[in-house]
Amino acid sequence: MKKLVFILAFWLVGEMAYGQNSIRGSIKNSDTMEELIGANIILVGTGRGSTSDLDGKFEIKNIPPGKYTLRASFLGFESFTMDLSVPLTEELAINLDPSSLLTEEFMVYATRASDRTPTTFKMVDKSDIAKLNLGQDLPILLNFTPSVVSFSDAGAGVGYTGLRIRGSDQTRINVTVNGIPLNDAESHGVFWVNMPDFASSVDNIQIQRGVGTSTNGAATFGASLNIQTDSYQEEAFGEVDNSFGSFNTRRHMVKLGSGLINNRWAFDARLSQISTDGFIDRAFSDLRSYFVSGGYFGDNHVIKLNVFSGKEQTYQAWEGVPEALLETNRTFNPYTYDNQTDNYQQDHYQLIYTGNLNSNWKANAGLHYTYGRGYFEQFRPNDRLSNYGLEPIQIGGETISRTDIIRRRWLDNDFFGGVFSFNYLTDDEKWNLIFGGGVNRYDGDHFGEIIWMGTAGNTQIRDRYYDNTAIKDDVNLYAKATVEASKGLFLFADMQFRGIDYSFIGVNDDRRDIEGDYRFRFFNPKLGFSYETGNGETWYASYAVANREPVRNDFTDSQVDRIPKHENLQNIEAGIRTQKGNLSYNANFFYMKYRDQLVLTGQLNDVGAYIRENVPNSFRAGIELDGAYRVSQKFTFGANLTVSRNKISEFTEYIDDYAAPEFRQEVIVHTNTDIAFSPNVIAAAIIDYRPIKNLEISLLNKYVGDQFMDNTQNDGRKLNSFFTNDIRLNYSLRPRFVKNLEFTLLINNILNQMYEPNGYTFSYFLPGEGATGRELVTENFFYPQAGTNFLAGVKVRF
């Protein structure tokens, strides 16, 4: 017993001494003496370390007396190493020198705006994304950025998701990954479900609102998302991230990095799996993805290979919930067939080079290839055989022209090409010139199969009841220049030429023979200026033009004698950006004037398919405010507000009339109506509170005003305004056995708001009573989002 007491007392004394020592200090940029936030500081070989806070300060606690080697590192800076003895009598002041290694930022430089570029943008860095990243898609993670409205088909942020920026949908938002275009060449859309957990491999995102400076793809018609994937890390690491939550949501992620090997090579890999039952009935998702990257990082040259892939299976929740069921059955899904699923895989390959050619010239080039393939499966009760090119089936004396059918509709496509840019900077840094371009080809096959019939017809399982192919070539060349005309005054010009050749041939999914060959040649100029006052303020103004070709359906569904016109956008941006101490904000005005914008009007083509029509004149105009203020060490407040008007000068609506003796469409002309899905007010606010070290509590608020689901500004076809509130808790600590241990709890919609950010509508006349002998029927369908729900995660970094 005496020995046991002695050992226990000895251990307690040791623990007391162990807990009395710590290393404190600050870490700064040696050139500018600015604090470096998020720098890593470790005691080599002990597993103990810290990360610098918002003031660039750090502390490593509970260190037993002895001699140690301390290592400090930060991306883009040379590592710092020193030997020291604990206990220390004073705080450390560490200054890191900028790295001589070429950074990866130039991979996205040509498609991005800088602080001197006269356009409106928002930067979202890795730490902002990580705080919310528990498996939901990128549109949901970006929900609190300015002018954004995000939504989810399944209602919980996993599966099919989307976003709108200033009312512009995903087909009008250009997305690049490391400067390489991501939008689908035919539909112009981005399907985030094909990139599950991609946020875990993102270093930062620049969101440009308006035409911006993006130089790739067709969809730069409202906004751009320029994504840069993970940069190398100097230290080897491992990370395991697991989360779970409502609707049986599960996310598992493993990430590994080699660190910088021989000061030149680095390799990283991620493997993710996400599953959920979804808020909507049966709207499950089973998502898998990986990201592998490796590269050579020299003093003047970087060569990097990225390979990433996503494979998804989701139960279809595309139909929405009928308005009549919103109050009684918000999770309604009309589909009941077990395999009513969407199945798709997309593989991406990127080979990127960045180099310093000399003291004035930099170069960037990228080769890319994307292979996508998959199908969605549907059960079709009592479908017409003629829809599949099949003759009626004769059984005995009975003629069968309808039967139950299960079909699959396939996409099999290849997208490949290259992008490049050269950057010239004069010795006095007054002239900055960029020359670049891209050449891309899309080769797509669309086809359909019948895999089962209630009554077997004259078809085999792999026969294609429709089959068509498309080729699209897209070439762009551009030149940009920024010149310092006088002290603080910068002039900007950006001239882009874009050429598109698009052809398709075959049998469409409605059994029509289609054939088309179209060419477009666009010139897209941008001009502007910025002025730096010298006290942290930058004033800017710009004028930009964008032209955009119609999407695939506009061509295939159009009347033979009425080919849709291309769309044109003229965009004016003017504002001020400020960074003063604890306060930062952006205030700007925008005006976006559209000519020949393509919108759904309800009009039918010659075979009864709904088509889009060019609207001669429409516009968006508004004011955006975005800012953050650090009240104290414990409180930070951030908010954004968009107030806008979004109008079509004249809109012609076509309504199907089934009450007439013969089918016809009634034509109604509307003037000065709101553009569909364009709320006049969008606002968000985030309050961060840090009551103790390593604990952050955040309140996230979002308000979206009324949205109309078509262009008639009819109150009976409207999405009501909504106000949601979320709470997020992040707590991190550094135990002895790992570099970092982090816990996150996210409670969404804490006030259980019943809201629908997305939907669709259609109207028609049926026979009815009264003088007209008919009645107007409007059917609205909505995509309800989940009430109060949660996600919780644990992240371990080794």
Total number of helices:
4
Mean pLDDT across the residues is: 91
Q: What's the name of the CATH homologous superfamily of the largest domain? A: TonB-dependent receptor, beta-barrel domain
Strand content is over 45%
Number of strands: 44
Features:
58% strand, Maltoporin, Chain A, Ferric Hydroxamate Uptake Protein, Chain A, domain 1, Immunoglobulin-like, 4% helix, 44 strands, mainly beta, 3 domains, five-stranded mixed beta sheet, 22-stranded antiparallel barrel, 4 helices, 798 residues
Explain the overall architecture.
The protein has 798 residues and is mainly beta. It folds into three domains: 2-96, Immunoglobulin-like; 104-229, TonB-dependent receptor, plug domain (Ferric Hydroxamate Uptake Protein, Chain A, domain 1), CATH 2.170.130.10; 237-513 and 523-797, Beta Barrel (Maltoporin, Chain A). It has a 22-stranded antiparallel barrel. Strands 8-13-14-11-12 form a five-stranded mixed beta sheet. Strands 3-2-5-6 form a four-stranded antiparallel beta sheet, with no helix packed on it. A hairpin with a 3-residue loop joins strand 18 (285-297) and strand 19 (301-315). The radius of gyration is 29 Å and the shape is globular. It is a multi-pass membrane protein. Belongs to the TonB-dependent receptor family. GO terms for molecular function: siderophore uptake transmembrane transporter activity. It holds the Pfam family CarbopepD_reg_2.
